[in-house]
Amino acid sequence: MPYPAELPARPDDHDDAPPAGSRYQHLDSTAVRESTAALQKRIYSRFPDRGLWEVCGELVGLVDEVTSGGGISRRRIRLARLLSRLGIIAVLAIFGGAIILAAASIWSSPDALGPIDWLPLLETVVNNLVFAGIAIFFLVAVPQRLERARVLRLVHRLRSLAHVIDMHQLTKVPERLQRGSREDGGLDLTREQLTHYFDYCTEMLSLVGKTAALFAEDTTDGDVLDAVEGIETLTSDMARKVWQKIAILQAQGI
């Protein structure tokens, strides 16, 4: 395989987005979805009688919700964005018309006006600009607030799913391998099977973090980025505890 050529130098006035020829500076939602679906199949093939593969199916559904353009929330956001743009046009038309009418009233008799007579026009212009700016700021912020609320709801569901994954591995401690069947307080798993089970949990936790990271791809919203960072920290801490159990299993198997 030939060594890849370097990307061409970017102009000084680039917009800080990934270069056109780059494939590795953007998280691919399709790849995240395919990895999650493949993990579900692997879990089911090895542990069809365990509920872990169903949890992974829930994660597949969440990935689809994150990347899809459908849903009631999405439709509301699109409608709010359309109404916001129409409202901005109406605000500009109304306040612009008020300024034009005030100017026409003054220019109808320009010879009779002194310098102080221009103050009403200046006052009207300033007031209209201030109120128009406030109205436009509010209208622009409405779709953004709706989008933020949708993202935070989905992030909360990802957080809950991460805790469910953690609960599935929480009671599976290496010491229970020696107790035999579930009726005797055991796990009905071999050491190798338990290692694979823990591996699947860590992979799923990592994919939960990657699903949350999809929200951070096209936003600079501070609340969204903080929520995504919280999910990534949570899943990393949970996975670290699972790896400690894997290390114990490996030490016992030596």
TrEMBL record:
Transmembrane stretches, start-end: 82-105, 125-143
Sequence segments annotated as region (Disordered): 1-24
Superkingdom of origin: Bacteria
Keywords, ordered alphabetically: Membrane, Transmembrane, Transmembrane helix
Designated name of the protein: Uncharacterized protein
